[in-house]
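input
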Amino acid sequence: MSRQAVDEGGTVTAPETGPDASPQTDVDISVLNLVTNDEARFFKQQVSILEEFGISCTTVSVPEDRVVDGDIRGRSIVQYLEFLPRAIGASFGDYDLVHANYGLTAPAAVLQPNLPVVVSLWGSDLFGRYGPVSKLCARLADDVVVMSDGMAAELGTEAHVIPHGIDLDRFQPTDQREAQADLGWDNGRNHVLFPYARGKSVKNAPLAERVVEAARDRLDGPVELHFVTGVPHRRMSVYMNAADALLLTSDREGSPNSVKEAMACNLPVVSTDVGDVRERLRGVHHSFVAQDDAELVDCLVSVLDADRESNGRAVVAEIRIERMAERLLRVYREVLDE
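output
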């Protein structure tokens, strides 16, 4: 099937901009970005679009994940302690403000003595183990950005709700059979996309496997679950267009980009009730938020059995990446004006 692209806006959850927001050449703002992982695709996308809007961006990141006996163990307190003087030292450079991306970079931002501070929280930094650190730093910052209304409520202080934007030129509907042929997928099967690694515990891959196994028992045709991670971002749209459904079984999220990217490709979504997924899917045909495991199965069976297209692209158009950049620019200007 060919998924049809629709470009219509809707209600926004952050300061309104015009539907045709475009780069501004008169911007003269220099930002020092602090981030845990400067290779995170949504962060790279954010920097790229801000630079198109004329904002000068420099990034200081936490040292890379530790690898122990071939296993990735994540960053340790030692790496964050190494990051702290580097970030504070960088703040003596010629910048207008520091933008801490992810809560664990925020202590360095609020401890530096030179620049106004914007803190962006992504989800796990607020709801996870280190949530108290994020909340404290948010209160010390000049302004705060969160991904969803639920995060704003959890934070308990004033914040701008600005979800990560989606590149609608990169993520758009294409012919499903052509995408499946590109990936070597059997077009006689139902294909369920799980866009994370099995080992990331917060994504709850075992639940996804149980849901798909139960769905197989109720459907006539075969159902294949695809764990997709580590592929170039430009290729993810191929997977989105080849699949019949995106399955999200996370225990917690902020504003998952995978859901918004699926919507941009008109791929139906079945998800646990996490982050802003319920809000994002409001008004989207044949996509569901489930309250428990049994409902996840029912919803996935409904999606795969009906073989209907979604209208997600029309709904997600309100958070195109250009609008995100315009909203962040407004936050920067407000902080600098203060």
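quick obs: The first strand starts at residue 30 and ends at 35.
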